[in-house]
From TrEMBL:
Annotated region described as Disordered, given as residue ranges: 873-930, 988-1021, 1026-1045
Domain of life, per lineage: Eukaryota
Lineage of producing organism: Eukaryota, Sar, Alveolata, Ciliophora, Intramacronucleata
PANTHER family on file: ARM REPEAT SUPERFAMILY PROTEIN
Natural source organism: Paramecium tetraurelia
Ranges of Acidic residues composition bias in the record: 906-915
Basic and acidic residues bias spans: 882-905, 1007-1021
Coiled-coil parts of chain: none
Cellular compartments per GO CC: membrane
Protein name (Swiss-Prot/TrEMBL): Ribosomal RNA-processing protein 12-like conserved domain-containing protein
Family annotation (InterPro entries): ARM-type_fold, RRP12
Amino acid sequence: MQVETFKDQLYAKLRQKSSPQNDKGLILLQSIENNLNLEQRTNPTAYIAQLINLLKSTKDGQEAIILLIYKILPSVPIVVVRKLIPALLEEIGKVQLDNLSLGVFGQILILSSKDDLNSPKIHQLFNLLLQQTISDKKKLRKQAIKTLQVFYQQKALDIQQVPEINERLRTHFKSNLQENNECAQHSLTLLASLNNLIPYSILVDALYIIIEEIQNMDSKYYPFIFLSLEQVLQQNVGADQAEKLLQQLNQIQPEEVNAQHAYIQCIRQCLLTLSQSSLSLAASYLPSTLSNMAELLLQNNQKLMQHCRLEMMTLIEKIGKATLSIKQDLAEDIMNLELESAGTLQQKYIATLTYLFSNRFDHANILDVFAKFFATIDDKTFEHCKEIVKEFVHNKSRWPHVYFEKTFGQLCVGVSMSNLLRTFPLQTDGVNPLDKDFDEKSNCWILYILSKYANPKLEEFLDFLFPLTNLLSLASNANPSHEQKIIQNILFHVLEIASNSKATNESQHHQKLGQFIELTLNYLKKEHVFFEKLLLMIAKLFSQLVTFPSLQNFAKQYISTLAKLVEQNNCTHTLNGIKVMSFAAPKSYIQEAFKKNIEKLLSSKDKLDDRALNNMDIVLQVVSAQQMTSDLWDYCINFAKEMINIPIIQKKIYKFLGAIMPKVHHTFLSEVYNLVLEAECEPSSRQKRFQVILLLEQFVTPKLDSYQTFIQQFLPEMVVAIRDNNIKTRILAEKLIENIGQRLLGLDLLDQFISMVFAGLAAQSNVMKADAVATISLLVDKFYSNLKGEFIDEMSKLILLLLKEQNNEIFKSIILYVKLFTQLLNVDEVSRDKNIIILKRLLMKLSKAYPSSESLIPQEHIKLYKNAIKIERQQKKKKNKRDQERELNKQKWQEKKQKKQKDSDLESDEESEQELDAKPKQQQGGMETEAEVENNLLLKYDFKKEQFHFEDAIKQKKKVQEKEQQKQSTVQPLVEYKDGKVIVNEQKEVLGQKRRREAVNSDDEEHAQKKITRNDRKTKDVVHVVKESGSTFKSKQKAGGDVTVKGRPEPFAFIQLNPKALNKRFKNQASKAFEEVFSKKSGALKGVKAHK
């Protein structure tokens, strides 16, 4: 098996790519294999030995020999290869160097041992590979770099113990990187490919050379140099090298666009590498680097500007954020930086960004940069950035409003609202809202941004924005003026900020918190324009202030106020406010209010009105804050028993049960179980009822004596709800059935559960049957992999029997069942095709029963239905066509039988008709002649006043053929051969008529002309008609001359002259017809000479 694998791999490598070199290698391999015995064919070493001998003995086909050595050498044992190294180096060294021989040298270098690496031959081989890395030939360079890369990967430990190898590499870099030509470029390629593998000292030395020579290098190599440097800098380069390189890069200003792209990437990577070693040192170079990049933003190239903008954002995010937090005195003491007197590192950094505000830069290029810069600012560093933020706001009119909002919003994320409002204080006193510069003077523009992006604290809101809440007194619903609209807009953002505020433990001790709550209580009126906004704000705030004891009295006041509003008009926000306040209010007050509202409902249960329903809504909101005790539980259950059968309030009673059930132990839920089981259900309350049943299934049923009892009691209701009009009810019913199926699956009772659902198919109601089919579809969909195939087949047979019911509801459910199977057909092809055929037959039957069934098919499966209908129609057409053909054949057979019986009568009738045809018939007005009738079968009419009849098709065809034969016999051929003579039959001219020029070119002449021009397109301008050019007598073989055929005339040529040649326009073309004939003369002479 090893031999076959080796040979198979070798042949596969050679046949993988079709080339002359690989074809020669295959031929050579087969010849070598024939010279080896069976044992030698199993050994790759035998092949190498034969190839080395061939390399010594012959100079032909050396490329194919080296190709096979390159392919076989990796399969040879390493011990054998090391013995063959001298012979291989000697013989392959004599061959002209190419990528194959270089590949063999690379394999020898890789397979050599640690001791061999010290030998002079291996050192020469390593030098050879290094020299080829700067070769002019691209293939040799790639092969050499690839070989050295593999060599350093596999021989890393051995190379460390052979310092001479690395010294040769160091010397190579020193000598070639200093060259101002392509050698430096190729050496950089080698350095970039080996930067992960070579020792750090070699990498540092190479970098020093690049730093010293980079300004002297040709600018056309800049793109490649910068990209190679970026790869080298991704390693852990020291701070000294990165700093020197950065200094050199800052002095270079490339002009080409490609060089500028690479320059930006290189200087960014250089600065990031420097920041890993010394963040303070990198921060000192950040301003100059950003200023250099800013100049590139002024270019007209959009891609370059976008690239530069992204690189600036990267530096600001990685280094700029740390720059803002550096302590200047510490940086000067540790790094001993020589900074200019212009300012600290932060000031220089911020001054560089401030330069971007000049009119030279487009807002589209700098707003993203400022957004990233603002995102790096926090409360600690905001003091350094105040001036640039003010400058940005001062230039607000330059930026589009949307972009200004997004950019300033990044500042609101990290900086607190208090710092921003101290920098831009609100000034509403003495400012007219109708002035054009109202936003700039009052700084109200910041409210909109804070309401959208800030995450303020409640204390900050109370300290800075609480005075603005007094504007609630100015807000009015009744025809507000323009000034009032501006005030309402300001107030809206203030309340939005209050809603987003976060309360802390310190918030409860704030002096203004009570004032703010009292103020909102005064304006909780339905007619107020901000009524709903105030409710939402209060709900959010009190959800955070639940644990504050000092706010219990306020919560009590809120509940009493909101309860009165509920009695006036039910509102979702009002009820939600009551629910939130009930957690913050005193527990005794909440329990008392809870029982009081229940007593009101019980007292008015015989006559429930809207006010009583509102009381029930309050009960539903307050019950969530109740701590359920045994006494309170009994009180709630008795209340539910009294009210559950009242239709108008039944839905809310089920919602009430769903709220109190999770608050007690499951042993208490048996009362709810019996209550729900005995209660009647209205269609409007079915959704809430199923929520209660779902809770019972989760909590009660595990403790029941028999789980089967629960299923038997609630299964009919679940089956009916599976096709309910309310989608939420359907979802709950599906979830309940799925939960039951999952639990019974663990008990191996799933088949019995499905059989229980099948009992619904025997119901008298068609709707119940349809519901049962839909439930079975759901169970098969969820548990298809757990059901047996025989069980599914039996179910399908029973379901298909329901098609006899011819009911629309049943049909819809069966369509659902079909849809299910179309989703479960991901099986093998045979089973899938079989199921598809069954489904198509089912759909065809359904389409016959219900012509309008297309509207009931799901849209994603409409193609399957249409395909089934199409196949049915095609089959129906084929069947009708076959029936018609049978009837036609039967009629034809009967007609033939009748014709045979009436042959004698028909003969006499034909004779009489011929006599009538011989006499000229006078034409009458509007009547066709007998000739017209004879030519047109549709007009054929029996003159004995009989009905229309048609002749037999075969008989009529024979008549047409006879007429054509008669025409052909009367027409004389143009050229005849009689007694060895050629006779030309021309048309006779009629006396007294001039011969037309068109008549000369008859149909036969045109046919002959086309025959000639088909063979030679040059005769298209021939004037005379060439009837015979002599080509018909030409020999079919290579011999020249003409051939005489027995029974035919001797070879001749005939040209019919055309009078058109007398015209001057065609005079020059008259001789072209004779060129076809005279061109045969040379062939004829050859034939004469041959006979002699």
